[in-house]
Amino acid sequence: MSKLPKRIKMRLKKEASEWDASIAKESPDRVMHLLETAEPFDASRPPRQPVSLRMDPFDLALLKRLAREKGLPHTQLMAMWLHERIEQEKKQGNG
């Protein structure tokens, strides 16, 4: 369930393999030094927006039980399912 367009994914894979080939030539001590001095990568995203939704109480109870079994908050499970469905619709060309 990737959010990146295929052309960007391919470019990133190519860049990653070039980096892998480059780093393979370095000594382990040099690699450790490079890792210790590297700056962390921060990919910012817009903040999530709250949404209000009216649900059938029985559906909500079942959702909460399923989420508890998965070890997730029910709101996170709902967001994951909704995102998966949106991606399916997008792949089918309906959105």
Architecture overview:
The chain is an all-alpha fold and 95 residues long. The protein folds into two domains: 1-38; 53-95. The protein contains four helices and no strands. α3 crosses α4. The longest helix has 19 residues, at 6-24. The radius of gyration is 21 Å and the shape is elongated. 0% of the residues are buried. The model has no long low-confidence stretch (mean pLDDT 89).
Percent range for helical residues?
55-70%
> What overall form do the CA principal axes indicate?
elongated
- Mean pLDDT score, rounded? 89
What string gives the helices and strands in order? HHHH
- Percentage beta strand: under 5%
Question: Compute the gyration radius: what is it?
Answer: 21 Å
Total count of domains:
2
How many β-strand stretches?
Answer: 0
Estimated structural class: mainly alpha
In this structure, how is the largest beta sheet organized? Answer: none
- As residue ranges, the low-confidence spans are none
How far the N terminus sits from the C terminus, by CA atoms, comes to 16 Å
The helix count comes to: 4
Task: Kindly list the characteristics that best describe this protein.
95 residues, mainly alpha, 2 domains, 4 helices, 0% strand
